[in-house]
Structure formats: structure tokens, C-alpha cells
């Protein structure tokens, strides 16, 4: 359960923005989307390796 304390005189828009930010940090929507379809462990591993290679290339470009 997400609790957002609203201070006196604080606008509803600001409180709603805080709520959205906290909700996004929990990762509920992201988890629901991943659970909608099954991905094989080998595909997950392949994606992780490709992502790691891409990030490593970016870091190498920054250095050199």
C-alpha cells in the first residue's frame, strides 16, 4: 500500500505526482507486462548478454 502524506496547502497535483513516482518505483506495471507472456530462460540470458555487450561498447567509446 502506497501512502503519500499531503502537507497543508500542498496542491493535489503535486501529491498525485508523488504518488505516480512512488508507484512507478515499485515496478508493478513492469512486472505485469513481463508476466503477460512467457520468455524462455535462454532468451532472457541472450538478452542480458546483448545488453551487457552494448553497454560495454558505450563505455569503451566514452573512454577512447
Number of helices: 3
Radius of gyration: 19 Å
User: How can the largest sheet be summarized?
Assistant: none
Poorly predicted regions are: none
By secondary-structure content and strand pairing, the structural class works out as: mainly alpha
Secondary-structure element pattern, one letter each: HHH
Shape: flat
User: Taking all residues together, what is the mean pLDDT?
Assistant: 94
State the end-to-end distance: 47 Å
Can you offer a commentary on this structure?
There is one protein chain. By secondary structure, this protein is mainly α. The protein has one domain (12-63). 72% of the residues lie in helices and 0% in strands. It contains 3 helices and no strands. It has helices at 12-26, 28-35, 41-63. The chain is flat. The mean pLDDT is 94.
Topology of this protein?
Layout: H1 12-26, H2 28-35, H3 41-63
Question: What's this, in brief?
Answer:
By secondary structure, this protein is mainly alpha-helical. The chain has 3 helices and no strands. The N and C termini lie far apart (47 Å).
Features of the shown structure:
64 residues; mainly alpha; flat
Amino acid at each position: 500500500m502506497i501512502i503519500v502524506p499531503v502537507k497543508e496547502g500542498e496542491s493535489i497535483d503535486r501529491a498525485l505526482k508523488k504518488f505516480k513516482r512512488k508507484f512507478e518505483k515499485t515496478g508493478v506495471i513492469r512486472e505485469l507486462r513481463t508476466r503477460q507472456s512467457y520468455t524462455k530462460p535462454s532468451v532472457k540470458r541472450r538478452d542480458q548478454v546483448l545488453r551487457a555487450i552494448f553497454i560495454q561498447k558505450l563505455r569503451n567509446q566514452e573512454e577512447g
